[in-house]
Amino acid sequence: MNGETTYLTGLAEVLWPCGGLLGRGEPGRVRGGPAREGTGSAYLPVPSAHNPRMILPAGNRYAAARAIGAFAQRHSLRDRLRAAALTAAFASGMAPLLLRDRLHVGPGHTVEHELSAALDRRVVIAVHVGPPRANRKPVLLLLTPAGRTVGYAKIGVNELTSRLVRAETRALGLLAESHLRDITVPRLLHEGEWNGRPLLVQDALPVGSQTDRPTRRQLLRCVVQISALEPVRVLRLSLSPYRSALAERIAALGGRPETEPLRACLNALPDVRLPFGAWHGDLTRWNIAGTPRRAFVWDWERLAFGVPVGFDALHYELNECVQDGVHPGVHRWLDSGARLLRDPLITSAGLVPGTEATVMALYLLDLATRYLQDRQAEAGGSLAAVDDWLLPALSGLRERAAREIGGAG
Questions:
Q1: Is 248 exposed, middle or buried (0-12, 13-18, 19+ CB in 10 A)?
Q2: What does the alpha-carbon distance between residue 293 and residue 295 come to, in Å, rounded to a whole number?
Q3: Which of 139, 190, 198, 333 is the 20 to 30 A CA-CA neighbour of 257?
Q4: pLDDT tens profile 137-194
Q5: Count of alpha carbons within 13 Å of 110, Cβ hemisphere only?
Q6: b/e for 47-68, b at 16 or more Cβ within 10 A?
Q7: Residue 27 · residue 97 · CB < 8 Å
Q8: Which H/E stretch holds residue 233?
Q9: CB 163: neighbour CB atoms within 10 A?
Q10: Are strands 295-297 and 183-184 parallel, antiparallel or unpaired?
Q11: What's the pLDDT at 77?
């Protein structure tokens, strides 16, 4: 049993406390209809129990096929071909011949029954697992037995993910009272607990074949509108609550070898005036889609206030740049990120020329502190290796910030 299989069995204990057992399935066609509460059911780990990325209902081909479409990223031709092949396999009933691993769930009260009661309608679930990360948690797609999307549910599985689920619940409540002119966010449908863990249910945004990644202008418009969720204030860095909070977060890292370089960089940054507002906190291609007239933004668990305007743009750009490799991507980001901050849409929010390197350094300090606090590097992922790329990039930005402020003077 590898680490992913262990994670899968632990996840089964959370979702189906009545009992889940990994095994092999007999070849056969997928039959329609979800299991009743007094009967057991089966799920298919896809692509396998040793590498689960989705957990799909074996008893409902319509829901399984719809879930593949909902979970597929489709950012590359390979992604689209893989999603199309899986969808065809489930739609035709051939999936059980190809996917032999099974997660057998015993009879009893399951998360499906809890969600059906909360929403007052019968739902079938499919689960998105995702790659290993410290903040990995199950995302449940809720569907009618006929395969129509009802919404999404998230459940905390440890201290970190429980904190994030609660934070997103609060964020969705706040966003429901806010006005974002060009952005649609999910509505909170239900807040509760399951198996002693926080549970939230939100509606599904109309994202699909008619949406795409945002254009540069649309992205920056979103960044500025999100920043204005609170009144933007222009403050000297030394007098900002943000700097004090960041210094405390760095100090809380304790005796880690990265602590002192992070502290030294923060202390060396010039005391420039910066605009402070809100940020989404994880704005990437996986959390935003758009049409020519509207953007759809989800996964608000990192929403925070009082941060330098432009952080969301830098975060999106960094994640785009590193798709083909961290080190060359970060090198590109050091230039492209500065250009984003010089865009008129960002400068209109109060960011003045000569402060770009300071904002970029603060963003990397914030990101490094998050990764270290959440122990992201221990869960895998090259971007979370702070000492490998982030500290060298910070050193260069620290020197650039000093030159910028000297040139401005």
A1: exposed
A2: 7
A3: 333
A4: 899 999 998 889 999 999 999 999 999 999 999 999 999 999 899 999 999 999 999 9
A5: 27
A6: eebeebebbbbbbbbbbbbbbb
A7: yes
A8: strand 233-236
A9: 15
A10: parallel
A11: 67
